[in-house]
């Protein structure tokens, strides 16, 4: 009798590493969704990646649809990004002083986004946390409004879920911490509202408008799957905030330089003629390194130390290697890249729709710009409650059938499928070939 692992053939090394990892790290991972808890099975430990492909420690290659959860717009190991990073590393990796690439990246983003000043941090979490502190410091108010299903990183005040009165009672204190470790006092100044619900927003501002420091929203939610803002919704939010002296904080950590070259704002604000007071960025602008940012109106940003009184800092903020990777990535992210992402996205979406329809699996595919996701529910999803009506076991079956055929989807039904400029015909064909059998697996 043998005591071999129960893992399917071809995942022994990943299974062994997962066991080692679990012995020294909670759940064996450094960010929860990587553990495959939502889909079951053994997470693949990736040894290398190039273009559209991941290769795991057992030597299996997968077409990557995670894209590092957004950053890898150009694909993995892009030669020009690699070369720029190698040169930056050769010059030294961190000085704790001002540097050239951070100025260049700041100028690049300020020239593209509707912001006048920017401050770099190391993660999207830090960006939203700092934006909220700045909004409170600038306005002298304490309440923060967010939407259910929008994720802004693991900021205490934003790890809040709404109570059962979500739709009707937008009272301070309607939000309770969504995790142990966040005291009720950290979320009692957070109001949680249903997404795309103008009436709820109007009621919250009518009641508490003079106490609201800011409203923060994902520019287009991507963390409950892709739920586009209803036409005019972001403009309405910007206008409502302005009317009440609150700041409108548009979180473009995921959509920035991804949904379009100008992010989600390029799809609505730039067309409709409004701008957020503050914005947050991450993912693509870090080129696969830990870099993120927040920026906005000059007068608001001037409140930030050392220019103003609101404190904010970071040992590795504006790191020269990370900002070099980000700058090189953004310079390579031309309109042609987004045109191409639209094209391959349309092919993959059509393939998924066809396969799921043929197998009789209820599904809805939603997009904003080049970003899209596949919901395992037959109804259009406009808010978090709708996203939660998905058939999660069907997604798990679909996920594993795709994985077995060499496609690595995000291990959760609540995520966008991230393509890159490196998803060429071979990668796309590999996806299309796998879809019918995966749809059949989901139907069972
Ligand atoms: N905001 C949004 C919209 C995000 O999607 C994320 C991460 O997924 C964050 C903030 C947090 O960023 P990070 O994981 O870099 O802390």
UniProtKB/TrEMBL annotation:
The modification N6-(pyridoxal phosphate)lysine is found at residue 283. It is found in: Cytoplasm. The keyword Cytoplasm applies. Pfam families: Aminotran_3 (PF00202). Its cofactor is pyridoxal 5'-phosphate. Keywords: Cytoplasm, Isomerase, Porphyrin biosynthesis, Pyridoxal phosphate. One of its GO terms (cellular component) is cytoplasm. It catalyses: (S)-4-amino-5-oxopentanoate = 5-aminolevulinate. GO terms for molecular function: glutamate-1-semialdehyde 2,1-aminomutase activity; pyridoxal phosphate binding; transaminase activity. InterPro entries: 4pyrrol_synth_GluAld_NH2Trfase (IPR004639), Aminotrans_3 (IPR005814), Aminotrans_3_PPA_site (IPR049704), PyrdxlP-dep_Trfase (IPR015424), PyrdxlP-dep_Trfase_major (IPR015421), PyrdxlP-dep_Trfase_small (IPR015422). Pathway: Porphyrin-containing compound metabolism; protoporphyrin-IX biosynthesis; 5-aminolevulinate from L-glutamyl-tRNA(Glu): step 2/2. It is an enzyme of class 5 (isomerase). Its EC number is 5.4.3.8. GO terms for biological process: protoporphyrinogen IX biosynthetic process. Residues 1-11 have a biased composition (Low complexity). HAMAP family: HemL_aminotrans_3 (MF_00375). Homodimer. Belongs to the class-III pyridoxal-phosphate-dependent aminotransferase family. HemL subfamily. This is Glutamate-1-semialdehyde 2,1-aminomutase. It comes from Nocardioides guangzhouensis. The gene is hemL.
């Amino acid at each position: 009798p043998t005591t071999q692992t129960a893992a399917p053939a071809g995942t022994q090394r990943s299974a062994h590493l997962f066991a080692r990892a679990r012995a020294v790290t909670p759940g064996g991972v450094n960010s929860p969704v990587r553990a495959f808890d939502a889909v079951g099975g053994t997470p693949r430990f990736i040894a290398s990646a190039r273009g559209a492909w991941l290769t795991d420690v057992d030597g299996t290659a997968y077409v990557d649809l995670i894209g590092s959860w957004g950053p890898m717009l150009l694909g993995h190991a892009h030669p020009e990004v690699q070369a720029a990073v190698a040169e930056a590393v050769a010059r030294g990796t961190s000085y704790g002083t001002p540097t050239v690439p951070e100025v260049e990246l700041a100028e690049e983003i300020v020239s593209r986004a509707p912001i006048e000043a920017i401050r770099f941090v190391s993660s999207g979490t830090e960006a939203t946390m700092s934006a909220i502190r700045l909004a409170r410091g600038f306005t002298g108010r304490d309440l923060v409004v967010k939407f259910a299903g929008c994720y802004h990183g693991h900021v205490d005040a934003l790890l809040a879920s709404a109570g059962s009165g979500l739709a009707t009672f937008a009272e301070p204190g309607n939000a309770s911490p969504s995790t142990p470790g966040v005291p009720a006092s950290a979320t009692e100044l957070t109001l949680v509202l249903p997404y795309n619900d103008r009436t709820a927003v109007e009621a919250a501002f009518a009641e508490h408008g003079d106490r609201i420091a800011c409203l923060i929203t994902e520019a287009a939610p991507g963390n409950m799957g892709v739920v586009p803002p209803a036409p005019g919704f972001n403009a309405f939010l910007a206008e409502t905030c302005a009317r009440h002296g609150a700041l409108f904080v548009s979180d473009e950590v995921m959509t920035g330089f991804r949904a379009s070259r100008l992010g989600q704002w390029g799809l609505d604000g730039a067309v409709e003629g409004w701008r957020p007071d503050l914005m947050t960025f991450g993912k693509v602008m870090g080129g696969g390194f830990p870099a993120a940012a927040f920026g906005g109106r000059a007068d608001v940003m001037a409140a930030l130390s050392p220019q103003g009184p609101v404190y904010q800092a970071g040992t590795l903020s504006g790191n020269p290697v990370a900002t070099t990777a980000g700058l090189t990535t953004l310079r390579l992210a031309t309109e042609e890249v987004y045109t191409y992402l639209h094209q391959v996205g349309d092919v993959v979406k059509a393939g998924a729709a066809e396969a799921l329809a043929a197998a009789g699996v209820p599904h809805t595919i939603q997009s904003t710009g080049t970003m899209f996701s596949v919901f395992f529910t037959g109804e259009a999803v406009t808010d978090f409650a709708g996203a939660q009506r998905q058939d999660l076991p069907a997604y798990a079956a679909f996920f594993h059938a795709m994985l077995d055929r060499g496609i690595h989807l995000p291990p959760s039904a609540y995520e966008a499928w991230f393509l890159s400029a490196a998803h060429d015909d071979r990668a796309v064909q590999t996806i299309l070939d796998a879809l019918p059998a995966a749809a059949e697996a989901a139907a069972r």
